[in-house]
Amino acid sequence: MNISENAKAGSGSAVKGIEKQVLETNPVLEAFGNAKTFKNNNSSRFGKFIKINFDDRGKIMFAQISHYLLEKSRVVKQLENERNFHIFYQLLASAEHKEKFDLKEPEDYWYLNQHAEDEGADVIYEIDGMDDAEEFAITLACMKTVGFNETEIAEIQSILVAVLSLGNVGFAEAKRGECQLDEETAEFASKFGNYLGIKDAADVASLLTQKYTEPMGEPMYVTHTPDSATLGRDSLAKLIFKRVFDFIC
Q: Where are the beta strands (DSSP E) in 10-103?
């Protein structure tokens, strides 16, 4: 994430603007890169390095923020009594966005509720002292401050909905051990495709049930088994979320 100021470099207003942008990157990075763990309620699941550049008069010219080691596995799997990344719960806590994207409750999404049926498990959807709806409003405001436009923000939200929907897509066995999409989860497969711009249901099915390979240099598609399709689904979810995080940073 690069932060600079269009105003005259070194002017008081420019420096204050850059300082404000640097500070307001924190809520954005925390929303997409922090989560509740068994250690604390706002644990960083990534590393961050901030480089601030000064001119020859010692005035701030611009800042550059780099990240590393994002805990991608958290997107698809968490320990008991932990949460996924904050941004998912923030999005679901917004009445406006729940209506806009036809969203359900956190407990309705596999990537947020996978311990719900474990005996004695305490599944965490809310954190004491943290208002996810309020935090979401702060996240959106800070995204605008650091330079994201409305179109970019809307596209990021759509991708987050696609990731949540992807986790609910199931697979059923077809002929000879191959798999097909589970009809009971067709709603989520369709939503996943729609929010990524894939309108053709057949294309969505092919994406999730087949893998591309090039044995002996010849391109071909191989149909997954239900188990390998599930692994592929989760790998895709992690990759998509990482790409979002990379774009934000």
A: 34-35, 43-44, 47-54, 60-68
Q: Which amino acid type is present at position 154?
A: A
Would you give the DSSP letter of residue 36?
-
CA distances to 37, 86, 162, 178, 245 from 45, rounded to whole Å, are: 10, 11, 22, 36, 12
Two structure tokens written together for 244? 């979002």
Contact 186, 127 (CB under 8 A): no
Kindly tell me if the per-residue pLDDT of 26 is higher than 70.
yes
118 three-class SS: coil
pLDDT bucket at 9, cuts 50 / 70 / 90: very low
State the Cα torsion 109-114-119-120 to the nearest 10°: -90
Domain residues of the chain, as ranges? 2-148, 149-249
Q: Which H helix or E strand runs over 221?
A: strand 220-223
- Tokens, residue 12: 């008081």
Could you tell me which CATH class the domain 149-249 is placed in? mainly alpha
CA 110, 81, 24 angle in degrees (round to 5)? 85
Residue 8 has pLDDT above 90, yes or no: no
| Collapsed DSSP state (helix, strand, coil) of residue 222 | strand
Distances (CA, A) of 131 to 31, 81, 142, 156: 12, 18, 17, 21
With tokens 């009809």, the residue in question is 183
2-148 adopts what CATH topology? Kinesin (3.40.850)
Strand, helix or coil for residue 9? coil
Report residue 102 CA to chain centroid gap: 18
Q: DSSP letter at 101?
A: T
